From TrEMBL:
It comes from the Bacteria. This is DoxX family protein. The lineage of its organism: Bacteria, Pseudomonadati, Bacteroidota, Cytophagia, Cytophagales. Keywords: Membrane, Transmembrane, Transmembrane helix. The chain crosses the membrane at residues 7-30, 50-70, 77-95, 101-118, 146-163, 169-187.
Length: 194
């Protein structure tokens, strides 16, 4: 079971990341032509009559950023912490607009996210009890500036791909893939010393 747990944690992180990253990209890609399984892709258009189009864009960009933190697995802890208010915001929009079924899906995704956060419970003890520093924090892989910069370059390509999608969908998808590969290589960049 211990050997299965890291695989399950990575799988949940990638699943949640793909779910929200894909949903955000689909909202902003030209004519919503991006892969994703949750929606609605027309959220911005749906909120615009209420004067909330900018809020819809904020949700889309938040989904992209937080989802990308998780799908690339480099920043699982940060992404899963940020996922709680993101899901809360989306839940309030869906309840306010009386959408059915979406709160159930969001509840399931929140449970997966809480399971992911549970794996980092040793980090949360000092937030609750400042004197808890005597309890050990599990050693995790060291991250370097090189790795962070490589990951960031991959993320920037995601944002560039959105703009490219208005010119050429195929090239935009290629830029997305290059960005994902680049971010995945950030773990290798951690091992390179300059």
């Amino acid at each position: 079971m211990k050997k299965l747990t890291p695989f399950v944690i990575q799988g949940i992180s990638i699943f949640l990341g793909f779910t929200f990253w894909g949903a955000g990209m689909a909202k902003l890609f030209y004519e919503h032509q991006f892969f994703g399984w949750i929606g609605p892709v027309w959220l911005i258009e749906e909120l615009t009559p209420y004067g909330l189009g900018l809020y819809g864009e904020f949700i889309a960009y938040s989904q992209i950023f937080i989802g990308y933190l998780l799908v690339t697995t480099r920043y699982k802890l940060l992404g899963s912490i940020m996922m709680i208010p993101l899901i809360g915001n989306i839940l309030m929009v869906t309840i306010s607009l009386n959408w059915r079924g979406t709160p159930i899906v969001l509840g399931f995704l929140m449970l997966l996210n809480l399971f992911l956060l549970w794996q980092y419970r040793d980090y949360f003890r000092p937030l609750i009890d400042e004197n808890s520093l005597r309890y050990p924090i599990k050693k995790r892989m060291e991250r370097t500036r090189n790795g962070h910069l490589v990951w960031l370059a991959g993320f920037v390509l995601q944002l560039v791909a959105i703009q490219i999608s208005y010119l050429n969908w195929t090239i935009a998808c290629g830029v997305v893939l290059v960005g994902l590969v680049l971010s995945a290589l950030s773990f290798k960049a951690d091992k390179i010393e300059l």
